[in-house]
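SEVERITY: medium
COMPONENT: batch folding queue
REPORTER: lab tech (J.R.)

DESCRIPTION
The queue accepted two submissions in a row. Attaching both inputs and their returned structure tokens so the on-call engineer can compare them side by side.

ATTACHMENT 1
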Amino acid sequence: MGFRSPKAALNAMVLVLALTGAASAQQSSTPAQAPSSSHQANSSAVARYLMGRIAQNAGAWDIASANLGAALKQDPENPSLLRRTFLLSLGEGKEDEALALARRQVAMEQGGSFVAHALLVADDLRAGRTKEAAARVAKLPTDGMSPYLAPLLASWIAVAEKDYDRAVTLLDPLGSHDGFKTIRTQQLALIADMRGDRDAAFQSYSEVAKQGMPLRLALLIGNFQERSGAADAARKLYRSYLDANPDSMAMEDALARLDKGGTPAPLVGTAAAGLGEALFQLSSALHQEGAAEMALLYGRVALRLDPGQPLARMLVGDILMTRDRDETALAEFRTTTGSPGMLWMARLRQVEVLRQLDREDEAAALLQKMAVERPTRTDALLRLGDMYRVTKRFDEALTAYDAALARVKELRPRDWTLQYARAMTLDSKGDWPAAETALNAALALQPDQPSLLNYLGYSYVDRGQRLEEGKAMIEKAVAQRPRDGFFTDSLGWALFKLGKVEQAVETLEKALELEPADPSINDHLGDAYWAAGRKDEARFQWSRAAHQADKDDGLRRSAQAKLKNGLVATVKAENIPAAP
């Protein structure tokens, strides 16, 4: 019997380790003396510790936290176990437990871990205990992240004490670290804004905006402009962002609020929220660099400082999704607060988690509800269609896409994705003429879009139609994405269909290097090898294709038939005789 999920397998391993520990205790005792309770406890603690380590390495932090926590109860003075259990508890969002473990860790160890100190500083700052927070910063370890984070912690403590000049000075060391210059500049803007120094805030906001305009920064700057009496500048900023990101409901909310008049409250109104912004920026940067564990931990500390920051909450959920912590991610997205636009973003993320959990009926119901709520938007219907298309429910997918298309009053370049999705669905339903029409409609919106060029070009080539035109389309796609193995495969297949077998072999071999596990590419290369007279190599590629095509019955049957009978019909190759 196989396990239904990695978590089930890990739980089973807990049982095995526990039983092994118990058996070891039994074997070590004599018939005249029963095993001692301390021996049994030690065996159980070892089993739980081993299981916790295995679970942590597998990314199952919930199981790891539970098992290491149980081991810690048996060995409460173990500093390494305490540190590890704290980090897991924090990562899982068990704030009260993590705070208690952080206090124990800092009290037990010389200095303690930096993340533990950061969490305790955050808790003190949020509660207004600035003296306690400052005392903790003074005792911070000097290694690791301390040179980068200590100035941020100390600066916002100074802000909380209304010592703004000192707060600005404390950030000076970050100016010499390239990775922290942008964070420093944004903190200077927030501090100046909180101080009421609009000129300094404007200067710092202008400087940080030169490095890019993510959603949170656009909202912060626009909020500052509105409160500074520059409503027209805020409106220009919001509209500019919306032009570049047409589906941003959060920015639509900002414009709608601005049009109603009035002065909004500051998005960052306290020192705790200011430090939360800094740690949110840090967590985002760590996540982009692939440091998921550290990003998750500092994201959690940011939420301790400002639990209502919606983008920080969604960032934590995104990190959890990348670590296959889907249930925990779903809980984060469901507890996101904020404007209707922010909640819309969080609900779309819920859909993705539900799909990963194979709860597609729930995902579909949520998307259908969202589509009814916003009768002019297309994104919920587009995602609904995508979900149905991936699961081969093509009639339902087409219904969703057509409903989305009916909402579009005037097609814009960004609507190519809708036509493209419709085309793929129609093609899968066997209606190639309608699919071709949809593809051409998409190309009319985005004439150089590589995915469109590749799909239409390959469709022509594979059907033996308009071969030269199809090849030219694929070549345009490959020129834009030369490292895309699927585009390169399309080009190789076009060369094969045109009888350029030697070029086809060379191109398909390159495609296989880029995407070695794709069954279609292996199958195509097998055909090209056969046409080139390299029959043993052809059979090897077909064998690989048959093995890899477990979800494509047609491709597997085709590859198996060629393994048995060879390539019955071959192209007329240039300078290469057709295989007998």
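ATTACHMENT 2
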Amino acid sequence: MAPQDVSRVMTFSEKLYKSAGLTFPIIAIGAGFVAAGVMDPYLAYVATSWVIFGLLGLSLDIVWGRGGLLSLGQTSFYGLGGYFGSVIALNLGPVTGNTLIWSLPAGAAFGGLCAAALGWIIFFARMGPLQSTILSYTLTLLLWSLTQSFQLDVGQASIGGDNGLSNIPGMILGFGDNAETLGPVAVFVATVVISALVYLLTRWLMKGTFGRVIDCIRIDAQKAELLGYDVRVYQVVNFAYAGAVAGLAGALFGAWANYLSPSIFSVQEALLVPIYVLVGGLGTLSGAFVGAIAVGGLSYWLGGGAVGGQTTLILGVVLIFLVLFLKNGMLGALGDLWLRHLPDTNAAARDTGAVSIDPDVLEGLLKDAAVHAGPAKNLATHDAFKRFGGVVPVNRVSRLFEPGRPSSLIGPNGAGKSSFLKTCVGIYTPEAGTIHLGSDDDITRAPIFERVRRGMGVKNQKPQVFGSLTVFDNLWMAAYARTRNKPAAREISEKITGMLGFTNQAAVQASVLSHGQQQWLDIGMVLCLAPRVILLDEPAAGMTNEETRELSSLVRILARYTTVIVVEHDMEFVRTLEGHVTVLHQGEVFAEGDIEALRANDRVLDIYLGRRAHV
């Protein structure tokens, strides 16, 4: 299947919309040079701070808009980068004349390093969003208190506590003893160019594979890990990069103001940054600059006496209006208006029938996977035990699952089926017992992503898809997690798309698919991983009778090449699988055998029907 068969050809308007992010830095640089010829020096001086605040806002948008974490610690990295970069510039600037080659890299490096340290604590401790926000805010408060009394002499630099750091050299682009400090207008132009370059680098990063993984983590971190991505590493790297951007902005601020004080860590500064991002447009990257310039420009205009001294009141009302009525900021509102005039790509989801798999394509995929990923593996548990307070959903379960025929887990609600599956996956860590993947691979304490990389594929009870991504991109992210090769991932995704009959829906957002279609897409993502052991938790839920028959055929084909374990309530569906069945009750193995024999077993009927001694 050719690539153009899967991806819908974009219209001119859509291409223009997708490239709109590139026009922002071009317009900004052009406007900067135009302004250089007409702008008043004082206005240029003030406007430079707005651009620097926009760069600081960009650092938050990377963490919050793309990473999903509201960090109130960006001014910490901003201030730390500013102080460190300025100290370096004070001591090494006289050697070369040029100050920015010292202050900017030093500020970015120190801000990134500090952010990486905080990010490691947040993400490797698996803190929740609220705890992470509080911790980042606490860091800002601690630095604000510390810098009030912190004094240190470093060569030519003297940090004087409440007096701050003064005599910071301005922006010097030339080299040698005769290099001159730039004037206000030239500083404005230089700041715009530097900020535009940082924006372009950030946009390139976020449009690439790294940014796509970060988007997936924001949408569903657990699903991203179930695809084999080490989400904590990605989150720390993203946080560190945002810290580097903030540190660079701080170094620019020091060179612009020639002075830094502890107020840079103040609560007011920390809370202004989210306002810039919200006003401009959360997640748009360029919106941070738009928000900072809009807030700064409005403050500048109101401060000139336009409203008779009611600057704070009017500014507050305007900001509340923008945040409440422009749900995704100024750029988000413009984007929504533009999208209304584009073709509805999601209409294809309403024009499709039941999913129908292609058995021949599936067989070919499984044979190819066996060549590249190796033969099927056994999954064995020995006395697996998991407790939640007084509830024991997994009670000393010992089972061996092998390839050749499907294995099913059945039992009444609360029997521990899903809990047992999650213990095998690593979502729940067992308190006792062992879990082995293959003959000698102990994965009892292995993280989820490591189990997936070793050959495990998982579909949880509810379909987990990345709703804002297209059907094809969902499959591509899964295939890339295994191959780490873009062309190979595309080839696999195209085959899975065709095998599932999703060719016409390839460009459809996953969120608009029906529940049953999302189940199929989730299964397709698992198949992209070429797993050697497949765990399916209630895969038939929400499917039509026709789709359930297709699913039964798929599971039986999978079992010829892999170990397949299915948790299911639908006894008729389990019967069609013609596999080995284990009955769980109160977290223990209650009975096992063929489905027909179990359906005739009075003890099994007792626990399902709630009668006699086995309830």
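NOTES FROM REPORTER
Residues 23-264 form one domain.
No errors were logged for either attachment.
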